[in-house]
Automatic annotation (TrEMBL), chain A:
Main location: membrane
Native source organism of the sequence: Paracoccus versutus (Thiobacillus versutus)
Single annotated GO MF: ABC-type phosphonate transporter activity
The UniProt record lists the keyword DNA damage: no
Entry keywords, A to Z: Membrane, Transmembrane, Transmembrane helix, Transport
Cellular component, GO annotation: plasma membrane
Membrane disposition: Multi-pass membrane protein
Name this protein carries in UniProt: Phosphonate transport system permease protein
Chain ranges passing through the membrane: 23-46, 242-269, 298-321, 383-400, 412-433
Stated family: Belongs to the binding-protein-dependent transport system permease family.
Superkingdom, taxonomy of origin: Bacteria
Database matches in Pfam families: BPD_transp_1
Record domain ABC transmembrane type-1: where: 246-430
Protein location: Cell membrane
From TrEMBL, chain B:
Keyword list, A-Z: Cell membrane, Membrane, Transmembrane, Transmembrane helix, Transport
InterPro entries in the cross-refs: MetI-like, MetI-like_sf, PhnE/PtxC
Source species of the chain: Paracoccus versutus (Thiobacillus versutus)
NCBIfam families: PhnE (TIGR01097)
Transmembrane intervals: 22-42, 90-110, 219-237, 253-271
Record localization: Cell membrane
Protein's recorded name: Phosphonate transport system permease protein
A GO term for molecular function: ABC-type phosphonate transporter activity
ABC transmembrane type-1 domain location: 86-271
Length: 440, 281
């Protein structure tokens, strides 16, 4: 074909189309930009900068990977308390203080590392900062007397009733009632054993040795069992509760997904055009599926939580109900798309409706349905975390609790890691199952 | 191969079928037993039992509906009052689908064999998408609410990140099946990477990508309603406030339910329609 045979009308059409395309190529990004600009205004992005709490972000990020130890002296009684994160369950017994704290009579010497040394004694407290000098604080006639190289840098905050010092090595605060030093150290403290467990004070080789042949520390139990018990009942990290919560979450997803699949299978048959002769029933079922999907999991979750109370069963039922709607729709569509020839073949042998379904339809649709169900299992594992946060069950509940207390950010980080691992594990499990069941 | 008598073949076949049926039946029994045991366990860890709760199932909805019916005169006003929140929820879903979709486009193109800008880094981008997909939205949203305060922005960021991971995987599966001949043709005339992708690949994959993005929009609408319930603005937050109030504000609860229901059904319908047109035409 040559250009000469091209009719002018065709050339015009092509050119108009090209012009329209070119216009669209500019108009679509412009429309997107305009919409985003509108959304930025609607969401008050400008005001956000003022409301954002960057100090919270700093706290959160530092808590994610490090812990702090509070070394507190009550200035009235003189009692010394060393506690991780200042919590009662993280308090060191007085005879087993960490190596960087040395006590001698009234005096306590705290080595913060990098040459920073804090000393508490009967006169008051001193903080030696390398490259700056000695900060000396003494209580005097109802106030605090500070002696330090002048002028005071901005990391020292001094008033008559309170002196606080913040350095890269730690934080220090003196008030009339107490003096407190915070030392920051990397890592999650007491992750395996808390301070009341004898295994906390052992190194890894020592723990291995005591597990294998060491003398029993608890006469009633072998050491390995005692370790497992101490780990499981760890009061700081609550490993036992956390593992139960993860299990609950997976259980919710499992029960919900497969329960929905079992419920939706007969309903799907009844809602498929080629399986169900009564149009009214089919239509009714379709609308029921639409209704269930339209009401949405959030509202089902709320309604069910009112009836059954918080817990994993409520979450499982919420997933079950929501997914019955989705599966019913998907299954009936899959059933409408089957190859009728196989059913016809079965019919020619004189099979009844149930037999036709069993031998003519089920073998065809099983792979399709199964892969849909397994995809839902994956996404429901994530969804069960969210539903758990609303109905109060599983790891979602622990996570929201930890976030709402606004101080246990290391727990939040721990749960996040566990959730990601759980979701990835479920992904690969369902992928494996899909390959086994569908291809093999 | 020695010839087998027809009877032997039949017996062997029936034996095989019987054994298969036995195994299948056993598996089914084990599966059902596991489900039942799991359900019992879940029930024992629940605050209320299944049987005790069943009669209560309709109590709450009927209580709510009865109160709303009494105050039905308020409903139009309440619907209008909560419409802005619904718009906010829709905006959250739309913006996060857009931004997540744009991120997903980049990630998909960077992690597709044959198209990637840096072929050695495809694995890295794939793992990145896996990680983005694995983090549930609620985790990111709650952490961001702590930093940024309540409101739609944490929800948008959380849903966008998740969308980028989820759509990225689907997009790259589509792009993997794209015909690479146009790309070769463009490369032969000296087109750069962005031109090859923009003119050679995007026109091929656009209908499928759009269809997936629309499906994601439906999912994100639900997600943004749920995130509102944990404090991220929109209609979910209104619902939470009304629910916390309890009796006396059930007319408000019904109005919000109705808005959410209509929005979800309408969006589902529209996107179903648009998707079937995209994929067919």
């Amino acid at each position: 074909m040559t250009a000469a045979t091209l009719s002018p009308a065709l050339a015009d059409t092509v050119l108009t189309r090209f012009a329209r395309r070119r216009l669209a190529a500019f108009a679509v990004p412009l429309a997107i930009l305009a919409y985003l600009a509108y959304a930025a205004m609607a969401f008050d992005l400008a005001g956000l900068a003022g409301r954002a709490r960057m100090d919270n972000a700093a706290v959160l990020l530092s808590d994610f990977w490090q812990h702090k130890t509070h070394v507190t002296r009550d200035n009235r009684s003189g009692a010394l308390r060393v506690a991780i994160d200042g919590e009662a369950k993280g308090t060191y017994p007085p005879d087993r203080l960490p190596g960087w704290i040395a006590t001698q009579g009234d005096a306590t010497r705290i080595d913060l590392g990098q040459g920073h040394v804090v000393t508490y004694d009967a006169q008051g407290a001193r903080y030696e900062v390398p490259g700056y000098g000695l900060i000396d604080i003494r209580p005097q006639d109802g106030g605090l007397h500070l002696t330090a190289p002048q002028p005071l840098p901005d990391w020292i905050n001094a008033s008559d009733s309170r002196v606080s010092v913040t350095t890269p090595a730690g934080r220090f605060a003196y008030t009339r009632s107490k003096v407190e030093t915070f030392r920051y150290q990397p890592g999650w403290a007491l992750f395996f054993f808390t301070l009341d467990s004898p295994f906390h004070y052992m190194s890894w080789p020592e723990i291995a040795a005591s597990a294998l042949w060491g003398p029993r520390l608890d006469s009633g139990l072998p050491n390995v069992a005692a370790m497992a018990r101490d780990f499981w009942t760890n009061a700081m990290w609550r490993h036992g509760d956390v593992i139960w919560a993860m299990f609950e979450t997976v259980l919710m997803a499992f029960l919900g997904t497969f329960g929905a699949a079992l419920a939706a299978l007969p309903l799907g048959f009844m809602a498929a055009r080629n399986m169900m002769p009564f149009g009214a029933l089919r239509f009714g079922l379709r609308r029921v599926f639409d209704f269930i999907r339209g009401v949405d999991g959030l509202i089902w979750t709320i309604v069910l939580a009112r009836a059954f109370g918080p817990g994993p069963m409520t979450g499982a039922l919420a997933i079950l109900l929501t997914d019955t709607g989705s599966f019913g729709k998907m299954f009936s569509e899959a059933l409408e798309n089957i190859d009728e020839k196989q059913v016809e073949g079965i019919r020619s042998t004189g099979a009844g409706a149930v037999q036709r379904a069993r031998f003519g339809v089920i073998p065809q649709v099983t792979p399709v349905l199964l892969s849909q169900v397994l995809y839902f299992l994956e996404s429901n594992t994530r969804g069960a975390t969210v539903i758990g946060a609303i109905v109060g069950g599983g790891i979602g509940l622990l996570l929201t609790q930890a976030i709402q207390t606004q101080k246990d950010w290391e727990d939040v980080a721990y749960y996040m890691v566990l959730i990601v691992l759980m979701v990835m594990a479920m992904d690969s499990f369902s992928g494996w199952l899909r390959r086994r069941l569908i291809k093999g | 191969m020695a010839a087998l008598a027809p009877d032997d073949i039949r017996d062997a076949y029936l034996e095989l079928t019987r054994r298969r049926r036995l195994y299948g039946g056993l598996l089914l029994v084990i599966f059902v037993a596991m489900m039942a045991a799991g359900f019992r366990l879940a029930e024992s860890r629940n605050a209320g039992g299944f049987v005790d709760g069943l009669p209560m199932l309709l109590a709450f909805p009927s209580e709510v509906l009865a109160e709303a019916w009494q105050k039905r005169a308020n409903l139009p006003g309440l619907l209008a009052e909560h419409l802005p929140s619904l718009v906010e929820t829709l905006n959250i879903a739309a913006v996060s689908t857009l931004m997540g979709g744009l991120m997903a486009m980049g990630l998909a193109l960077l992690s597709t064999r044959g198209l990637a800008r840096w072929p050695r880094l495809t694995g890295l981008f794939r793992r990145l998408m896996d990680a983005l997909r694995a983090v549930p939205e609620i985790v990111v949203a709650l952490v961001l609410i702590y930093i940024l305060g309540g409101g739609p922005v944490p929800a948008v960021i959380a849903i966008s990140l998740h969308t980028a991971g989820a759509l990225g995987k689907l997009f790259s599966e589509v792009a993997e099946n794209a015909d690479l001949k146009p790309v070769e043709g463009l490369a032969s005339v000296g087109a750069g990477w962005s031109q090859q992708v923009g003119l050679g690949v995007l026109p091929q994959v656009a209908p499928n990508w759009l269809s997936y993005a629309l499906m994601r929009f439906e999912i994100n609408l639900r997600a943004s309603a749920i995130l509102g319930f944990v404090g991220a603005g929109g209609i979910g937050y209104d619902l939470k406030l009304a629910m916390q109030w309890g009796m006396g504000r059930y007319d408000e609860v019904v109005a919000i339910f109705a808005l959410l229901f209509v929005a979800i059904v309408a969006i589902d319908r529209l996107s179903d329609h648009a998707r079937s047109r995209l994929v067919r035409g």
